[in-house]
Amino acid sequence: MFTTHQAALNGFFRRRVAHPWDAQDLAQEVYVRLLRIDGGEDSPIANPEAYLFTVASNLVKEHAVLQKRRSLGVDIAQVLPELEAPQGSAEDEAERDFRQRRVAAMLDRLPPRCKAVMLMQHRDGMSYEEIAVQLGVSTHMVKKYVVKALALCRRGLARYE
Description:
By secondary structure, this protein is an all-alpha fold. It has helices spanning 2-14, 20-36, 48-72, 76-79, 90-109, 112-123, 128-135, 139-160. The relative contact order is 0.08.
């Protein structure tokens, strides 16, 4: 079964996940899960190929949930570099200036609400509750804006590195 469906399964995952190595890992996980099934004679799988892709589809969903959880754990210090470092050499000053321009460019690319929330939180020091009142939205929506902004900033920083 592995050799028969390996190419199709790898293609299935490559179309649905961001990285090729994740596709390979997920394909292996499908087979590990299939090996764990006690499909004795009493409960044979009627359509093994359909079952294989059902397991694969569920793995894609699990993978998406895990990726989303990882993005929720973003540390703002990783995304928005410390811009107010003590004065140093000309090289340090140039690096700080470059980082400030990068952050400003990333903020300019954010959707308007996300940008406003980020500025209110980090520049103005406002809490989620204060931002929610200011924008007329729930604190949960403010959190969503922050998560979206941080994810976009993380991708933007990754392009620079």
